[in-house]
Amino acid sequence: MNIGARLQALYSQPGDRQALQRVAAAFAADPHEFVLALRARYAADPTLGAAAAPSRSPTWINHGGNQTVYARQFVHPRTLAELQSIVAEVSERRGRLKAVGAGHSFSDIVQTDDVLLDTTSLLNPYNHGPLLPLEAELWHDPSAAAQRVRVVCGATIRMLNPVLARAGLAFSNLGGYDAQTLIGAIATSTHGSGIELPPLPDAVRSLVLVTTLGKLYQIEPRAGITDPAKFYRRHRQSEIELIQDDDWFYSVLVSLGCMGVIYSMTLDVLGSYQLRETVDRDAWPAVRAQLATPDFIRAHRHIEIQIDPHYAGEPQRRCNVVRRDAVTNAAERRDLPPLRRWLAAFAVTPDAQGLIVRLVNDHPDLVPSLLETGLNQLVTDEPHLAPSYDIYNLGAVNRAFVTAIEFSFPLQDNVFIAAIDRLIELMTENRARGFYQIGPLALRFVRKSRAYLSMMYDRDSCTCEVAMLNGVRGGDDMLLAYERAMLPFRTRPHWGQRHELTGTPGWLSAHYPMAERWLALHARLNERGIFDNHFTDRLGISSGGQ
Ligand SMILES: Cc1cc2nc3c(=O)[nH]c(=O)nc-3n(C[C@H](O)[C@H](O)[C@H](O)COP(=O)(O)OP(=O)(O)OC[C@H]3O[C@@H](n4cnc5c(N)ncnc54)[C@H](O)[C@@H]3O)c2cc1C
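That is the input. Now the predicted structure with flavin-adenine dinucleotide docked in place:
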């Protein structure tokens, strides 16, 4: 039976179990053909994909398509001096300015109606590359230069990976995508998985910040890498001030764009390495029991778990367990299989995703079969072996029009297990009402961070990401319901992902023990309110300069 006929059968016998399974199997067998068949099926429908034209063109839209910015001005400085002069001008007139990286945040943190500042125009002004000179000669120990890089704002992780690889270097850990700017990712405490591996900000040793009135600071922790005597032999304090202070450093590291524009960051990196990855399918109850013991999480450099929240006809709820370990560079490369083909199908084109969303809105009970089939496709017959950054990157699925929410729970007292139980229970209740969670619960484990507003500040954490395809009926309400249900579990939502319930008075201080120190520095650096926006207004942390 061809795919078109299977779809026809699904529409003529809605809810028929065999028809659902046949459609899911067709999707798994050839996602591309499947999308073509869907397109043919819906071709006659004039309403498909006909979005209403916006009354006014937005200045900028984020990657997820859920944040539209109507800025008065969109500026693209090309040099540090231009950047300083823009920040000075906006501060003088007490305007508002927001820096944007690659726009891979779903939350309202880059909203502004005044000046939006594109950091991607600021690549190295001499060679347009992502790295700047280290200035290791100004350090206490210049020999450490071999394993450090200085990254300019606007440089994406995708640009940086091959440049580091050519130098025999690699980041110690990365998240699941590479299109973000490294500095934008660090600004929201982006993380990968690995209980011995903290989030990205913890690799930073020094940074350069342009703040109110265009003032320039180089900021480091108390025992910073730079020798102040050498620094001031080269630079005048009136041009750039060196601050070596823990409160400054651990506040500005994760400053959410609220303290200024970070021009550069100097980070520790590793010698390049390969990763070996396996993905096994297992029963969630058994994995859940093992998660309660620390050994399971610590047995590999990286553990990730993708839980299917639906039964999908299985006697027990299933999950995928992803394990990754570093191997020597001499190991033979075994490429990633077409595994990610199923995931990539969501991202083929916006049109393809629109078709799939249309299908699951018409047949929500198809979701469990699709999800189960997809998770099965990720299982490895033999391990993958590839350079670390290839393994970290989940690839094309990241281009799908998805928005996501991510919760960070403390590992202590197994709070995270109770929270996940509650999420699955809620998804089961929603399913009974006809609302289906379309993606898995993706668990990662992250070592505690020293950055004051990192979601992992001072606690080893389990993060749980829940994604929703844009346009799925009830999707926004489901995400909000998950956020509300997670409030009792000491959760800190990812700053860059959806979060709407974080603005109640006292929330920040109740969840972040160092919030008062962060806020004190914020009030000082943002005294004119230039870095305030909708997000800071909502959180009640604006300096109110306007
Ligand atoms: C497909 C996808 C995959 C993702 N995968 C992961 C993952 O695996 N792990 C994870 O933890 N998160 C993940 N995220 C979230 C993402 O990493 C964060 O939202 C990150 O902050 C986005 O980086 P960006 O360069 O796009 O920054 P933007 O979204 O443009 O900006 C984020 C914040 O940084 C500020 N900012 C940007 N540049 C500067 C600068 N130079 N100086 C000061 N402030 C600045 C902005 O003002 C804003 O507040 C993912 C998001 C997407 C869309």
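The pocket of flavin-adenine dinucleotide is lined by residues 63-64, 98-105, 109-110, 119, 153, 175-177, 180-181, 183-185, 187-188, 190-191, 256-257, 261-262, 398, 494, 496 (CB under 6 Å).
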